[in-house]
Write the structure tokens for this entry.
Amino acid sequence: MEKSYLTLFENNKKWVNEQLKKDPEYFTKLANGQKPEYLWIGCSDSRVPANEITGTNPGEMFVHRNIANMVVHSDMNMLSVLSYAVDVLKVKHIIVCGHYGCGGVLAAMGNQQYGLIDNWLRHIKDVYRIHHKELDMIKDEKARVNRLVQLNVIEQVQDLGKTSIVQNAWEREQPLHIHGWVYDISDGIIDDLKVTCTSTKDLHSVYHFDSVK
Ligand code: CO
């Protein structure tokens, strides 16, 4: 039986010692609680680690990851993370970060069956359908996947704005910006798609909720 996982414990001990060398109080401080300013919604892809690529430390970023960084309105996991981040931690920025060459987006663009995951990928197919006129014009497959990666992020930013969790925060004038970014695995650079939502004005009126009085 492969015991490669044992390295993880060794690495952990090394890391603990390094942190303590830099700051003997490091873990004592972290144990006191968290006050992150950011909620990160990213892809589960092992090449897109939220903290490393943004230079953030433990305690600075609340993280939710799933295949293709989706905001599915019936996903209890995402909704619970979102509610806790917005209502309790009061994060100021939510970042949806996709990445070029996303396997989930590529799979959603094709017609092959993959099993259970097809139900998840269908949400990305819906994004394709909404933007099919633009996407069908792109002949190069790689370019088409990468544009769908961008459009998917833009739709997920909007989907966050559609939630009552986000709209109620805006209603009580809690500062909350929703950003759409794309990470390029081939050069490590994050691109801001500049589709930031900061109020219900950034959403189609059919999605506006009246305030609960
Ligand atoms: Co991905």
